[in-house]
Design goal:
The protein has 10 helices and 11 strands. The protein has about 300 residues and is an alpha+beta fold. Strands 1-2-6-5-4-3 form a 6-stranded antiparallel β-sheet, with helices on one face. The structure holds coenzyme A.
Length: about 300
Amino acid sequence: MFELQPHLRAAMSGDPDFRAVLWEVGGLEKSRVDPALWLAPEELVEMEALRGEKRRREWLAARVALKGLLLADGVVAAPATAIVRKDAAGAPRLVVYEPDTGRYEVRGCSISHSGAYVLCAYTPGRHGRVGVDIERRTWRMLYLRRKYANKADRLLDPPDSIGAGTLVWSLKESLSKLVGTGMGCGFPKLVCNETEPGRCEMFDPAGAPHRGRYEWLERYALTAVADPPDAAAAPAPPPRRGLLERLARKRRLKRLRRERAMREREAAKETAGAPEGAPAGDWCNREESNLHASRH
Ligand SMILES: CC(C)(COP(=O)(O)OP(=O)(O)OC[C@H]1O[C@@H](n2cnc3c(N)ncnc32)[C@H](O)[C@@H]1OP(=O)(O)O)[C@@H](O)C(=O)NCCC(=O)NCCS
């Protein structure tokens, strides 16, 4: 029922931190995809709100390709149990039903469409992030250089300048998707340095390192950027509190401890004064036993 024809094609395979897949939008008709079987109710609502047949088809093809990969990897048994949900900035996250725990877990994912193709990726690890992009070679990259290039950008064996520009742009777009800002982060602030063929170290606007990969499919650059393995292993530690906040917190804790100690001292005093057997703080029983004592 969920066979995709023509088959999904793995992209940038063999990476421990993400799985990526390429598919053709035309596969929707060839595979006779029924959106009601592939999408969760909230996704069906999102699709209905999209304007234009082309936009709707590429949007649907991306979800079907991603879920096809999840099915092939055995992550889900039914495509509608995985949901692509977006945050306020439009960055997608994958919400997957885990039958073992009966809970929904969040994983990183990323989507790109260009021409006849969609490229999608997800992170097998729960804390990972990934960004992908598919970019067709275009001469406009020569004129847009100031909008994306950084002096520190390096490619080992650059193709012609259009190809080099397309690659650098695409790698930076992937990084901007990983970060979750999109182009708003300012591509010239991002740095791309190819360290071995097809593999780059990438630096985000804060200077944090990430791993980039690319390959060519005809005239298209396929790129992906993932967190370094150690960052993907655990969630980032919460930001350190400011000095004033730390002092206020220390004072608040001290006050709470003092109040608790006072309460405990008072309770201990009352217990010492109470008749044997009456639990501390149980005024009702104490009153009653006092009454018994006065009667006898
Ligand atoms: C994210 C962005 C780089 C995508 O670039 P694009 O070339 O138009 O489109 P692509 O096909 O490569 O990617 C589209 C996918 O990016 C993803 N995306 C959108 N906003 C995103 C964000 N803030 N972070 C990560 N991914 C995002 C979506 O999943 C989208 O696919 P979907 O609509 O099927 O869900 C670009 O749209 C952007 O910068 N958006 C945020 C700011 C903005 O809207 N600016 C207006 C133009 S300056």
